[in-house]
Amino acid sequence: MFEGRRQILLLFFIIIGLVFIGKLFFLQVIDDSYEKAADNNAIRKIIQIPFRGEVYDRHQKLIVYNTPVYDLYITPRKAHVRDTLQFCQLFGITRAYFDSTCKQAKAYSRVKPYLFLKHLSKEDFARVQDAMVDFPGFTFTTTAFRTYQSKAFSNALGYVAEINSNSLQNQKDDYYRQGDYVGVSGIESFYEEDLRGQRGVKYRMVNSNGVEKGDFKEGSLDIQPIAGKNLYTGVDIRLQEYADSLMQHKVGSVVAIEPATGEILTMVSAPSYDPSLLAGRNFSKYYQDLALDPMKPLLNRPPSAYYRPGSTFKLIQALVGLQLGIITPGSVFTHAGAPVKCHSHNTSHNDLHNAIQWSCNPYFYHAFRKILYEDTQGNTFERSAQGLQRWSELVANFGFGRKLGVDLGNEKKGILPNVEYYNKVYKGENTWKFSNIYSLSIGEGELVVNPLKMANVAAIIANRGWYIPPHLVKAIGDNKVVDPFYKTPVSVGIDAKHFGVVIEGMKDAVLHGTVGGDGKIPDIVMCGKTGTSQNAKGEDHSVFIAFAPKDNPKIAIAVFVENAGFGGFAAAPIASLIIEKYLKGKVDRKAVEEKFMNKSYLPNVLSVTGPRPSKTKKDTLK
Amino acid sequence: MSNQNQLVSKVDWITISLYGLFVLAGWMNIYSAVYNPETHLWIFDAKFYDSNAGKQLIWIGTSLILIICIFAIDFRFFEAFAPIIYASFIGLLILVPFLGVTINGSHSWFKFGSITIQPAEFAKTATALLLAKYINEPQVNLSKWKNQWISGAIIGLPMLLIIASNETGSALVFASFLILLYREGLPGEYPGLFVGTVTIFVSALLLSPWTILATLILIAGIIIALSPIYIQRLKQTYIKAALFIVGIMFMVFLVDLAVNTVLKEHQRNRIKVLIDPSFDPRGLGYQVTQSKIAIGSGGFWGKGYLQGTQTKFDFVPEQSTDFIFCTIGEEHGFFGVLVVILLFVAFLWRLMYLADQQRSRFARAYGYGVVGILFFHFLVNIGMTIGLMPIMGIPLPFFSYGGSSLWSFTILLFIFLKLDSHRSDMLSR
């Protein structure tokens, strides 16, 4: 009876078996999401952050390095403190802190490590290390702070901070995670990929309580961290500190370049900040203060601040005129007929040399007029456009209106007004002519530069017609590699023969021209040019560019001091002191040094927000 | 001696081999679950016997003693003493609430020194024996109402007592006697109704009423379409179909109502977790999720013996007992579980084949009782590890860690093998 029912039951069992096999096939073979879930369950990825690369100056002096700090962790289940008093004394903590932190740790987990004490110094770590055998269940992990040898190089160096959410989302290669540190500005940011090194990964097996159970696959998948590459800069940190000390109580910039290599010797932005404030645990507090400071200490002025070049631009006018063949060293222009004024100087034979030496405004007014109009056709509008075209092409070679390519992220282009620019400003072609734009002749008007560009102009003149793009870092890593861009000379398209008269004029401007007594170095032949940069907000900015020595120049410099007036007053003496310091290693003119270290132009800067100081000699430029 | 030879030649070595294989495979997986390369213990180490693997080795050894005892007992004992055995276990089940101890939150254990026994595990065997003896009575005909009623009472009594001690999972195992009764002539409607009810119940939980309605209409349509033309022309056919669908939909709503009102909170949660494991990912859903992760991460060939990370690091709770299948799935992959499932179905088939060979209705009925119980455990245990069944704390026979469980399944199986070895001695009535 009912024998057939065995077959029915067997069929039923087989169906159930097949359902299971089908479901298992789906779980195990088709769907691979469970494998990842299992890895997340059981394998903990431990990121090992390598030491960030160090930064050296041109004499192999360490200027930025890492200080290891130690975080103490407690694992409550293993922790056993017999003598709590001794423990508290050892770490300099209170009993209340000990008790409350232990309680928090237990509440967090009995088996997972909990941060007990943050940022113990190397010395503290060494001191407590031996005593730790009495306190099982406590472990240390190492992290590092960026540490600075000098307070004087903050802006160009930049700083390192936790990556912000914007950068985190916009990153290209998905390298960073929340809480990672990243170079935010300066060369810390520009060379981030070299400095950061290669992060290591360690895979550890953990059980469901998060307790580590050994290496996963005997560590075969682990990646060893690779330390970041060191940066070797061309900066002379002693010179940097000296320049920084001269720029105290002032707002402005100093940029010094070695003309032959394009290496930046010094890059000062004033006012600056103490870089150690932005390294370490109080970052956000200090950052707030610095970011809100009206003096903008976080701004790196040399590549990013905007100024008019003022009379320093006359050097370029002279070179462009000579190259175009429109003026010669012997060309003479008098003061007559120029709307720009000049102060009294010997105009009996006002040739180019004399005009540079005395920064003669009418001379360059006439010269620029000639550059626009000579050998051009049509009415004055058309001729102005043709003239400005050939002028702007040559001026652009000096780096005006474009980035020089310095190894900093925040370089600004500046403005070189050309035909297109004025067509836009005056709303149409042939709507403007020389009389509208003559301010350009003396480096005012629409022309905008930054201090770095003007230091490069000094280097171009020192080199008689070429430059290597200025750069802070001259070698990266142990192999000392460098981008060929920073090795390749760039010609500015001015024949070397035209520089002689300009350099002679600059020499005499220093010796017995616009530069006053404080700007003369007794035993060094310095070639310089003062400038007075007009600005809508207040007192003129004091500008000076120079190089020295005259033969075989070693240093080219640009100094901008905001609201300090005439270029010969503040900028020229400061530049002369820096040059003297660099070339001689010491400064003999102690009185001048002391005078300018203590001199403050801040009241002028601060008055910018107040009523505008009365100015009489608007167009008297030197 | 002749008696011994007779026994050796008459026992079913296929079944015994499969039993041995299952127990060995189970032990290896229990060993793997506790295996720790750092504190490597082996069987000569006294500490080894503190671990699950060590204890299971003791359970296996004592199971061998139990097997010898069963073969030593006269085969007529089991039929003759079935009522007494049954009555004793009913007595124990009654005493459990008063004298028992609580282990793993279940107040259903007796403690004798260091040995703990869960009478509910053994009550299945006792019930199978009594039920088989009852059916063996010549006048019993399972198509008769009275005989059905008495059979139901034999099954229902221990079931109710186990439910009373809150072991719903173990109690549900008694539903597996439907297989025994079905084989012995219970009209097909009963198991059909049971399977139908469970199907409706599960679909009511898993699917929306509209999906069920659409499916029913589709099925009715197909059946009618395949029927002879004259049936298709009868108005009655459509009325019947409509009534049938309305009836089932009514049941579906009843199930929803029942789930939301009658069931206790923890029972309702177990069912909800079945539908949506993320409903309680850290609690009830955790077990299912972790179990699926462990099995799913095994891939086709598995991670290799002793290489499972999920089971070894305690991600799956109860992994040596109720979730031993996870270890197999993780370390031996789809291939491993395929072999286990195929062997288990073959094992059930072999037992049914043996049962049908019996001359005595008692032995045959008991054999089907064994098949039913083993099948039910197989169905629910594997089903719950892969999320097809709600979590009920019942072990995978022969594989799972645990003395009570291994002993009870060994006794259950070997009583049948003992009876089978004497099938020529038994009188067919």
In short:
Chain A is α+β, with helices and mostly antiparallel strands.
Task: Write a structural description.
The complex is a heterodimer of chains A (622) and B (429). Chain A is an alpha+beta fold and 622 residues long. In chain A, strands 2, 3, 4, 5, 10 and 14 form a six-stranded mixed sheet that branches. In chain A, strands 12-11-18-17-16 form a five-stranded antiparallel sheet, sandwiched between helices. Chain A has a three-stranded antiparallel sheet with strand order 1-8-9. Helices cover 36% and strands 17% of the residues of chain A. Chain A has 23 helices and 18 strands. In chain A, strand 17 (541-548) and strand 18 form a beta hairpin. Chain A is elongated, with a radius of gyration of 33 Å. Chain A folds into two domains: 38-76 and 145-245 and 257-299, Penicillin-binding protein 2a (Domain 2), CATH 3.90.1310.10; 300-609, Beta-lactamase, CATH 3.40.710.10. By secondary structure, chain B is mainly alpha-helical. Chain B folds into two domains: 2-185 and 280-421, no CATH class; 197-262, no CATH class. Chain B is 70% helix and 3% strand. Chain B has helices spanning 2-10, 13-34, 52-72, 76-80, 82-99, 119-136, 145-164, 168-172, 177-183, 189-206, 209-226, 229-233, 235-261, 265-275, 284-296, 309-312, 324-357, 361-385, 403-421, and strands spanning 101-103, 106-112, 115-117. Chain B has a three-stranded antiparallel sheet. In chain B, strand 1 and strand 2 (106-112) form a beta hairpin. In chain B, helix 2 (13-34) runs antiparallel to helix 3 (52-72), helix 17 (324-357) packs antiparallel against helix 18 and helix 18 runs antiparallel to helix 19. The radius of gyration of chain B is 23 Å and the shape is globular. The two termini of chain B are 31 Å apart. Chain A: Residues 252-579 form the Penicillin-binding protein transpeptidase domain. Chain A: It is found in: Cell membrane; Membrane. Chain A: It comes from Aquirufa ecclesiirivi.
